[in-house]
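Hi, here's the filled form for the chain we discussed.

Project: internal
Contact: R.S.
Residues: 73
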Amino acid sequence: MSHRFFEIAAAEGRVWSCPACGDDREFVQPTCVDGHTEDGGECPEWACADCGTAIVSGDAALLPVVVTSARAA
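And the returned structure, exactly as it came back:
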């Protein structure tokens, strides 16, 4: 990818390392259907423009994981 491509991608989306492609790629935002942008904020969901791999940016809420076990009678 050329330096010029990265300048354009940075203006229209974001350039990050794509784990599926194994290289820097442009990431774009699909239309947000979860309401993240209703207050003018940015949706944390991004997708690789080449392969579609989805990533989430920013601080994710940490939720506790509850593990239970069951015993057969």
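Let me know if anything looks off before we file it.
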